[in-house]
Structures are given as structure tokens and as C-alpha cells.
User: What shape does this take?
Amino acid sequence: MSKRILIVEDEKNIVDILSFNLGKEGYETLEAYDGEAGLQLALEQNPDLILLDLMLPKMDGFDVCRNLRKENRSTPVIMLTAREEETDKVLGLELGADDYITKPFSMRELLARVKANIRRNEMVNGAPVSAPAATGSRMELGRITIDPDQMMVYKDGRALDLTQREYELIKFLAAQPGKVFSREALMEHVWNYEGYVGDVRAVDVAVRRLREKVEDDPASPQFVVTRRGLGYYFNA
Assistant: This one.
């Protein structure tokens, strides 16, 4: 069965280009030209992924994403925008977007991100109770296992339902256990903001959400630990 992608974008030429290229890759598409229609389609049709513009009539992309997550929908969301302000990127991620791409973008890059997000969401939703057999690329870190091939994290053998950003964050920290990374360093390496200087609250938000999923007691973390005044590290 073909995967369905909802495109929420008010520029018809962009919608046409996206629909054409996604169709060539075997995806079905749904289209909405304003935020209210996009949210309604997202809730009614339950697409496999949403390409969501930020600047939309009636309801902007931030509110669409916010309302979608309020309904406990975990549909992967890739935000599209021509705006490059860092605050837009941070807010989009805080509201639960899985990825972010700025116009003009490479269609090849966008298709690769679409495929990766859909694939990972399938693995999370259909993950077995136990982790798969060991492979050379997996990281075994006590009660935590990270499988880069499947883009999955397991705790005590059970798959964790992480967003792409949460997965990238724990994978990066766990690759060098015990090493403390500043918020700025995490923005640069995990969020891919080269030479980032500015608001780093998105890191704290992502860490808090990650702890809610990975820790026995998020208020007293054992795995993703704060080094006061310096940053965060993974405690293996």
C-alpha cells in the first residue's frame, strides 16, 4: 500500500512540484492550501507524513503542529519555510516537528528526509518487544541499546517511541559517554546549526522530553545527566 503524504502549502506551484516528485517515488499525496484545511486533513486522513509550510493562511504551521500534537498524533512533520530566523527553527522543534528544511531546498534532500522519517516511524510503531540480534554497529550501554541501522533506541529490550530529534540527541551523547557537551555544541552537532550563537532553550526542551521517555524518574535522571553550568552528558 502506498504511503500517503499530506502537503500543506499555500503556493500552488510548490504543491505541484512536490506532488509530482513524490508521485514519481510511489507516494500518494493529499493537498491543503491553508492551515485549517491542513489540520482537518491530518486528523481525518492520518497521513504517513506531513510537509508543513510555516506561513499559511487561516492558521500558521506552528499552530497546525501544536494542535496536531495536542491530539496525540505522532505523524512525522517536516516543516518547510522560506524564513531562516533561528527562532522559527527552535519554535518548530519545540512544538514537535521532526525535521526542518528551508526553501529553496534540493528535491533529492527532501525525498531522502521523507523516506527516513517514514521508515523510522514504521519501525517505532511496529517495533518488537525485544531488541533484535546484535550487530556490529549497535551501541550496548547497559540498559540502553542504540541501533543506528534501524534508527532505534531500546531500554531493557523495549523500543522507545522517540522523535527523530530525540533519537539524534541520545545517539550523539551516547557515542561519547561521559563527555560533557554544551548547549551550543549540541545545537551545532545535533540541530546542525554551524557556529550557533543564540537561544539554546530548544536543547533543554528536547532533553526534558527525552528524559520523560528514557528515564525511570525524569526528575532524577540516570542516563542523560546535567553538568551544572556546562551542559549534558550520557552516563553509561
